[in-house]
Amino acid sequence: MLDRDINICEVEKNLLKQNKSTGEDDTISELYIVYWDILRDDFFSLLQGIFNDTGTILRNSQHKGVLTLLHKEGENCIKMEDIKLSPIEAVFKNHLKDNLGAHEKCLQTLKKQLHARLKKLEQEAQSAREELKTQGLFQTDLDQEKGKIDNNFTNHKAELEKEFESCSQLIAQAYDKHLTEHIPKLSVLPVKITINVLPKDLKISDVVFAPTDRTKPRVIGAVEGAMSANKDKLVKWPEDVQFILFGPFAKCNQHETEKIVQEVLQNGVTYPDVTVLDSQSMPVLHQSMSPGSEIVIFGEVKFESDLPKKCFAGLYKKEEDQIVDYFICQSCNFKWICRSCMEVCHKGHVIQPYIMNFHPSWACCYCPKNKKCIIRE
Ligand SMILES: [Zn+2]
Ligand SMILES: [Zn+2]
Ligand SMILES: [Zn+2]
After folding, report:
1. What is the distance between the alpha carbons of residues 146 and 125, in angstroms, rounded to a whole number?
2. Is residue 377 part of a domain?
3. 227 CA from centroid of ligand 1 (Å)
4. What gap in Å lies between CA 195 and CA 264, rounded to an integer?
5. Are the C-beta atoms of 354 and 326 separated by less than 8 Å?
6. What does the pLDDT read at residue 41?
7. Rounded to an integer, what is the distance from CA 176 to the centroid of its chain?
8. Residue 107 domain flag
9. Ligand 1 centroid distance, CA of 367 (Å)
10. Which residues are CB-neighbours of 132 under 8 A, at least 6 positions away?
11. Among all ligands shown, which has an atom nearest to the Cα of 352?
12. DSSP state at residue 28
């Protein structure tokens, strides 16, 4: 059926030609099909091993295995890309493939060494037998000496095979230890969630919670980070702010969320997958917080944008490097108007940006100077 010097392409081609598949749909062959990409190389080195070592043809069951491996009812060849893996399966598949490959290579090297040793042993036994013949011994002595050589060979061979087995075991143990130490359980991996600042109707997504992160400091950190990126500083975080955890399937729109939060906090109503968090708890470890959850913040959290607007003329500090955006009001026909004045005193006027990110060296805003200001105390 196959040439002794088999190569992967030939085997694949030859096997695919043998259209004898029964279309059986047993679990084992399905498993092979799913992991074919992983098993392929090992499978062929196995085949190669079988042919090189003994020159025998595959046993019937193996033959059938090969065919079901490569055929599925009505199809010629199973392509890995046709099988849809979940994202987690794909991660495992890739790692498994790499790791299995590396360890298989290690095992193959050992196997090669074993075979070389066995071959040498057999040659030694053979030459010892040849030498016996030249010594002119009586038949009984000859048989006895031959027996000794055979025994010696058998024992040596068994020892080498035992050594190989124990090496394989050691590799497996080392790998098991490695995996145990390096693959954390899914429940203790960092978790990505959304923070919902309910009073501000603001959502901060992709906040990573490490297993040991505590609710309050982590949430405040995330809110501060997101707000300062929006140039709106967090200015007040009262002690009585509450944190309510919504599981991925309990999330709902802002209006419903607000209703549930009120019910939970004020009337003690319970909802599935909605938990009031202690500000010092570690939600990943204590509440098994799932990825995709939402932590809702309820309380009088204040940002700079919530405070009454103040004209820059009253905020200037000589020792600080302050950055101010200035605007022109075409309706009032003057420039150097600070952002707060632009938003309040010149609301509804025709405005244009003038100079952005300016570093003023005095309390500069022309709005009070031109007696248009309604926010300057
Ligand atoms: Zn101003
Ligand atoms: Zn104006
Ligand atoms: Zn003003």
Report:
1. 9
2. no
3. 23
4. 18
5. yes
6. 60
7. 20
8. yes
9. 5
10. 142, 145, 146, 149
11. 2
12. H
Distance from residue 330's CA to the centre of ligand 2 (Å) = 7
Q: How far is ligand 1, taken at its centre, from the CA of residue 223, in Å? A: 28
CB atoms within 10 A of CB 216: 16
pTM given for the model: 0.50
Q: Is residue 337 part of a domain?
A: yes
Tell me the pLDDT tens digit for each residue of 46-101. 555 544 444 334 444 444 444 344 444 444 444 555 567 887 778 878 887 887 78
Q: Are residues 161 and 38 in the same domain?
A: yes
Q: Which ligand is nearest to the CA of 337?
A: 1
Specify the CATH number for the domain of residue 284. Answer: 3.10.20
Q: Which of 123, 155, 181 is a domain's end point?
A: 181
Map tokens 């050992």 to a residue. Answer: 110
- Domain shared by 121 and 205, yes or no: no
* Interval 314-335 mean pLDDT: 94
What are the tens digits of pLDDT across the range 331-360?
999 999 999 999 999 999 999 999 999 999
Instruction: Calculate how far, in angstroms, residue 62's C-alpha sits from the geometric centre of ligand 2.
Output: 88
**Are 110 and 172 in a shared domain?**
yes
Q: How far is the CA of 337 from the centre of ligand 2 (A)?
A: 9
Domain containing 264 equals 191-305
**Structural domain count, the chain:** 3
What is the distance between the alpha carbons of residues 22 and 62, in angstroms, rounded to a whole number? Answer: 14
Q: Cα dist. 69→9, 22, 76 in Å?
A: 15, 11, 11
CA distance 291 to 284: 9
Q: Which residues sit with Cβ closer than 5 angstroms to ligand 3, an ion?
A: 311, 341, 345, 367, 373
Quick one: 34 and 140 in the same domain?
yes
Q: State in Å: Cα 46 to ligand 2 middle.
A: 84
